Amino acid sequence: MFLGSIACKWGILFAVKSLKKVKKRNKNHELGALVLSTSDPLLKSKLSHLAFSKWRNEKLPIGVYDPPSRPARPPKPELVSPKEIPAPKDSGMPLNAYMLHNLAHVELNAIDLAWDTVVRFSPFCEILGEGFFADFAHVADDESRHFAWCSQRLDELGFRYGDMPAHNLLWRECEKSSDDVAARLAVIPLVQEARGLDAGPRLVQKLVGFGDNKTSKIVARIADEEVAHVAVGVYWFVSVCQKMGRAPCSTFKDLLTEYKVELKGPFNYSARDEAGIPRDWYDKSSTNKHGEVTKPDTTEKLSMIYGRLASIIAMENENASLNKPAE
């Protein structure tokens, strides 16, 4: 425990020193690339938070930077195919730690997914606008906090991230969309993160049933904050479609077909509605009494979504702490 504490403190000091080396003339995307190139999970999480804070507080310019081909990863967990992930009874972990480890893996990948989006599409800054990069840098900051909560709770349960194998499915999905910002938005926020909205309540109930109320509260808070991340994806996907002169609904469906991405239920309609994903984008049964696909007022809905997102961001700026999980 003592040596682990020293290692953690050394890692944080190294992260701070790394950021101090990045002078004001450097750009947000260079900070993002630094996070992507960091392999230690806790250091990556801390560095992500520091990078976002430095960029926001010092108002660094966006810049253009090439991302690494794939993010740096620690020796553990071993990355295997989804079919090779052990079942809970074979994992050597109790059910609550097993589920929390899986969530920690998702959150660590989410840090890299958000920063990769910031860095990879930096050449299109003038077209997309600074708000695009500000939103996804903020998402990366949220994900770093979520991973820290999961890691801290795993430690309290007597385990660490890396104690069981994990899959690389999330990053493979990210690589599919490396050359198309519309595809990236469709595949990651509107599919992968939206699946988190579907799974969140079920995970919370399983943890409550297991008797781990503390972990269930952490997961519930993470799930609630993920709504805003999906809302960011909806907002910018529609914005990109408008710039291309294409209908968002049909473009979304075409991209999923092109990139061979499958939509799977059951869907958490209330969370998806709150995030602003129109039901006819993902649910074939979403038709009106005349058999026509429903078409919500996208402009009005997006205005409501972005208003809610702004409120969440303001609240997080005041109250969020990287090191304090939900009580």
UniProtKB/TrEMBL annotation:
* Region entry Disordered, spans: 66-86
InterPro entries reported in the protein's UniProt record: DUF455, Ferritin-like_SF
Domain of life from the UniProt record: Eukaryota
Report any Pfam family annotated for this entry: DUF455
Task: State the protein's name.
Answer: DUF455 family protein
What organism is listed for this UniProt entry? Salix suchowensis
